[in-house]
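Internal tracking record. Fields below are filled automatically when a chain is submitted to the structure queue. Please do not edit lines marked as system-generated. If the sequence contains nonstandard residues, flag them in the REMARKS field before resubmitting.
Queue: standard
Priority: normal
Entity type: single polypeptide chain
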Amino acid sequence: MSKIRNSCLHLSLILLSSCSSVYMPNVPNTPMLSTKGEFSGGGHISLRGNASINGAYAASEHFGVLFSGSYMNNDGRSKDYKHKLVEIGGGYFNNFGPDDNRIIEIYAGYGGGRTDRVFRDYDDDMLISTDIEEVTYNKTFFQVNYSSKKTDNIRMFGKDFPVNFGTALRISSVEMKTFIRNGKGQLREGNVFFEPIFFTRMRLSDTWQLQYTSSGNFGLNNRKFMTAGNSLFTIGAVVNIGGTKNK
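SYSTEM-GENERATED OUTPUT FOLLOWS
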């Protein structure tokens, strides 16, 4: 239960610190691959409507390939925010521990995305100005995942559900390809982001799990547009087919 309380604390801090940036991170791929031929897939959605999908396949006993994408389209009176991102990657995974139920994963990859933002100012309900930003960017990432198939139990609705925890430490380098503001080209920006991720999975069966994910987002450079601020809090579902059984 102490692990659950700590995870809730992370969620609260992240929700309080969320703000806007042209870079919207996706839910990192944390497939928990364990053996050759295993497939992992997932879908996640945030409170702000940022939807992410993840897929991974264990091509050999210790090498996996990844695919991820995310999309958001929020229209408001004062602000529109549209975002899409895709990325691919690959890397190493291995089981360890007394029961081989702990997993270490090391992945790297490449992707690209686009963000469109519109800001509107009003005076007595009359539109007085509009600021339109259109950004495309490339992204490279490196991440280390640690997770465990060893479970604790949480009791809900009179029934015990196995729960396990994991974390990922991701470094993302994001560089603008184009930056158009109100029809004019702007100075392009880039930044390096440190993104620690925490996730909890509640097992419904050997195949299906519910997952909530929380993360931080910290920019290592001071930038005006390509800055930190968009953290994650998402709810989703994960499926693992063909892996070793949970213990």
